[in-house]
Amino acid sequence: MRSVIDAIGNTPLIRLKRASEETGCEILGKAEFMNPGQSVKDRAGLFIIRDAEKRGLLRPGGVIVEGTAGNTGIGLTVVAKALGYRTVIVIPDTQSQEKKDALRLLGAELIEVPAVPYKNPNNYVKVSGRLAEQLAKSEPNGAIWANQFDNVANREGHIRTTAAEIWQQTGGKVDGFVSAVGTGGTLAGVAIGLKAKSPAVKIAIADPLGAALYSYYTSGELKAEGSSITEGIGQGRITANLEDFTPDFSYQIPDEEALPIVFGLIQEEGICVGGSTGINIAGAIRLARQLGPGHTIVTVLADFGTRYQSKLFNPDFLRSKSLPVPDWMETEPSISV
Ligand code: PMP
After folding, report:
1. In this structure, what are the phi and psi dihedrals at residue 311, rounded to the nearest 5 degrees?
2. What distance in Å separates the CA atoms of residue 69 and residue 100, rounded to the nearest whole number?
């Protein structure tokens, strides 16, 4: 490998034992936490930067600006460092401390802003867009806005890599794909890529509470209710990455259904992931039940769990959200020396 960039993608497809046994299907998770930035968003980071280079928008030492829940910022920064660019990352202050620490450690310039809805001009995405415009004028080597939500280089990365890898790793034996949506790059990109190989592949969206897409795809209305402690997912609009895409099935997954799956994976299968992966696997289980036993369903293990130690894996935080705390999380060590 010539650089860390070559370590992005080609992630393993891991059989999820409990989910498979419970449904009689093969439920497989694409281990995106094994990317160098420990999430699925390294792929978007790489494709967005390569696309900007091809368009002649990036000069050596140039700045990449982005608004992100954290993982895209990490992916962009890993790639930027390897290629000689800088990143300025705007993040809502509600996102986990671990992701903010990782961004600072990697050398991103981090700007925390209050979390406000998309329609508010001070929303992190809009702040990042304005900042990019400003820096394009003042930075000696220029600046670009990555714009992951509406930049389709994001989903192109999933058409060209994630979908192609899933097809190759399953030998074309894949009946369904499910994931949650942040930008929609993963879901729409993998859907387009797999359907081009076989139109029979069923695609499902797993939407957390607080997102508007379940309502959109089932009733045509963008309406959100409730909330979720998951990060990086939960969309309220049709992004450019979601255009020309309709899922075959839509599921709305409450945290109470998703989080026990995450806790079980860590305790029973040695797979350490964040909350969005719980939504993804809950969606895969629902699709498995819908299609019946004997099918192969793929989903995404979106990021590594230690990124949420202070929240999802913190009993006090779970209690503050009125979510059940698993016993093992509060058990004292049984061996003393
Ligand atoms: N899970 C996590 C943890 C993420 O950070 C993201 C990206 N924001 C997603 C899932 C959703 O991916 P996408 O943006 O491709 O829809």
Report:
1. -125, -85
2. 9
